Amino acid sequence: MRADKFLKVSRIIKRRSVAKEACETERIMINGKQAKPSSHVKEGDVLTVRFGNAEISVRVKEIAEHVPKDKAADLYEIISQHKIEQQSE
To answer: Residue 25, class by beta-carbon neighbours within 10 Å (0-12 exposed, 13-18 middle, 19+ buried)?
Structure first.
């Protein structure tokens, strides 16, 4: 499944257009490598997503085309979640 679509279906990012933009602005990594919106995501992959000053890493447990809102979190498990320190000049 495409990275932008997985991020939307899993509701890590709410809209596919925002997920696509996040990939294009180098805020998404798959297994430590920079992801493009069309990058392939499969079970077992580790996705790292940067949101402003926070970062979350998740392991893909399942790939599904459509899931109900309450089941979206079952597609992945959170490995780590932390704030990124801002560097002052």
So the answer is: exposed
Q: Rounded to 5 degrees, what are φ and ψ at 6?
A: -60, -45
| Distance of alpha carbon 67 from alpha carbon 24, whole angstroms | 25
Task: Give the predicted TM-score (pTM) of the model.
Answer: 0.86
For 1-89, list the strands marked E by DSSP. Answer: 28-30, 33-34, 46-51, 54-60, 76-83
* pLDDT, tens only, 43-85: 999 999 998 889 999 999 999 999 999 999 999 999 999 887 7
